TrEMBL record:
GO molecular function, one term: phosphonoacetaldehyde hydrolase activity
Domain of life where this protein originates: Bacteria
UniProt EC number: 3.11.1.1
Protein name according to UniProt: Phosphonoacetaldehyde hydrolase
Higher taxonomy: Bacteria, Pseudomonadati, Planctomycetota, Planctomycetia, Pirellulales
Coiled-coil region: none
Organism: Stieleria magnilauensis
Swiss-Prot/TrEMBL keywords: Hydrolase
SUPFAM superfamilies in UniProt: HAD-like
InterPro entries: HAD-like_hydrolase_sf, HAD-like_sf, HAD-SF_hydro_IA, HAD_sf, PGP-like_dom2, PhnX-like
Length: 227
């Protein structure tokens, strides 16, 4: 029986018009590159953002030193802060209602993200959510030593909420790396959702247990797994 669902944020539970990956691309290309948006999203989706920059740069087959990556990441953070100040951030359709339904069933809800904690907390505040009222926990890339695809954020969420076994955990996210994260943690259900960065075809390559098209498709899956 599923006791905990760990949801990704951007593209899964948070609708921010893909501004993160648009900003990743803008910061990288401002440093003299010409990567496409499709390249950035296919390579960087769901990752801690300095790692996403590192992996996108690697697509050109050249060596890139950490000083260059750090400079692009610093520029990215400035650009993202400005973009979020102007952006009307919204929840993905049905997110609050789904959280409410799950928690009424006794299923705990945690958000996790490749953002650092400050960025994630600002997003949550803009939507009007708060930990303990709308969901049960938040784990960010800055809270663990290893980001996705390692399952460390999910394992921390389990420890924080005293969930004993990953066989009772589901992970939901909009990118392959979300699915790999759930697999690495041993989650019983690793679910891709088509509302964000990657298509159904890309998600399927990660071999999720399920792919859904909207958040409210999740409760029937949980019902079926409990049966």
């Amino acid at each position: 029986m599923i006791e905990l669902v760990v949801f990704d944020m951007a593209g899964t539970t948070v609708d921010e018009d893909n501004v993160v990956y648009k900003t990743v691309r803008a910061a990288i290309n401002a440093a003299g590159y010409q990567f496409t948006q499709a390249q950035v999203q296919a390579t960087g989706a769901g990752k801690e953002k300095s790692q996403a920059i590192r992996d996108v740069l690697a697509l050109d087959g050249n060596a890139h030193d950490e000083e260059e990556i750090a400079a692009i990441f610093a520029d990215f953070k400035v650009r993202l802060r400005s973009a979020y100040d102007e952006l009307d951030v919204k929840e993905q359709p049905g997110a609050s209602e789904l959280f409410r339904q799950l928690r009424q069933r006794g299923v705990r809800v945690v958000l996790n993200t490749g953002y650092d904690r400050d960025t994630a907390s600002n997003l949550i505040r803009k939507i009007g959510w708060s930990v303990g009222e709308d969901f049960d926990g938040l784990v960010t890339a800055s809270d663990v030593s290893r980001g996705r695809p390692h399952g460390d954020m999910i394992i921390k969420a389990m420890k924080d909420l005293s969930i004993q076994s990953a066989e009772n955990v589901a992970k939901v996210g909009d990118s392959q790396i979300d699915i790999h994260e759930g697999q690495d943690a041993g989650c019983a259900m690793c679910i891709g959702i088509t509302t964000g960065a990657q298509s159904r075809e890309l998600l399927a390559q990660a071999k999720p247990t399920h792919i859904i098209d909207r958040l409210m498709d999740l409760p029937p899956l949980l019902d079926a797994s409990a049966g």
